[in-house]
ferredoxin--NADP(+) reductase
Amino acid sequence: MSVFQKETVLSVRHWTDSLFSFTATRDPGFRFQNGQFAMIGLEVEGKPLMRAYSMASANHEEELEFFSIKVQDGPLTSRLQKIREGDIILVGRKATGTLITGNLIPGKRLLLLSTGTGLAPFASLIKDPDVYENYETIVLAHGCRQVSELAYGEHLVDGLRNHEFFGPLIRDKLVYYPTVTREPFKNRGRITDLIASNQLFDDIGQSGLDIETDRIMLCGSPAMLEELPAMFSARGFVEGNHSQPGHFVIEKAFVER
C-alpha cells in the first residue's frame, strides 16, 4: 500500500495574493486528532512532492480542508496555488503533531496563539466539541501583517457563530482576537508584545497569564515560536509533548513550505 492516498480537490478559494484555502475528498480510513498535520502534496515528474500541512477541517468532517501561503518560488506552493476543482492531490496516510489537547495538563482557559497560516490547526480545534467541554474559555488570537490576511479566520469564526450546533457553544466560550502589525486596525501589534504588555488580556476584558488556569498552543512564525516559549518558561510554564503533558505546546513543522 502506498504511504499516500490520492484525493480530489473539491473547492479552492484565494483570500489574498498570498493566501488560499482548499478542500478535498477524505478517505474514510484517514484518521486524525484535531490539531494534527499530515504530509500533502502533488505528483511532480512521477514523484511525490510533499510538505507538512495542518488539517483545518475537524476530524468529524467528511472533507479535508487546508489553509496555505503562496510562495512564488516554493517547490510545492508555487504549484499548489494553481490547483483547481477536480485536480488530484496526495495526502499522507499518517497524521501527527503536538497541537492536541492530550498534550496539555487540565486547565480552565485555552489560549490558541497563531500567526499567518499557523491558524490552520486551530481552525480544526475550535470545531471540536470536546474543547468546549474541557475549557471554560477559548481565546483564539491570530496575528497578520495586513487586515486582508485576516479574512479566512473571520470567515471561519463567523461561520461557527452562526452554526446551528456550535453557535450556542461559541457565544459563551470562544473569544476571537485578530491583530495586525502594518495597518490601522482595532487591535494592533505582535502577539508576543500584546501578551507581554497584558494588552491582549485588557482588550478582551480578562485577567492576565495564570499558570494555574492557562494552557497554551502555539503555531506560527519562527520569531513567535522562539520568543513566546521563552516568556512562558520564565514564568514557570512547562512545555508539553506526547510523553509528558505540560502547560503549553508548540508546532514547529511549518516554518517553510
Observations:
- The radius of gyration is 18 Å.
- The chain has a mean pLDDT of 95.
- Helices lie at 77-80, 120-125, 129-134, 151-161, 166-173, 191-196, 199-204, 222-234.
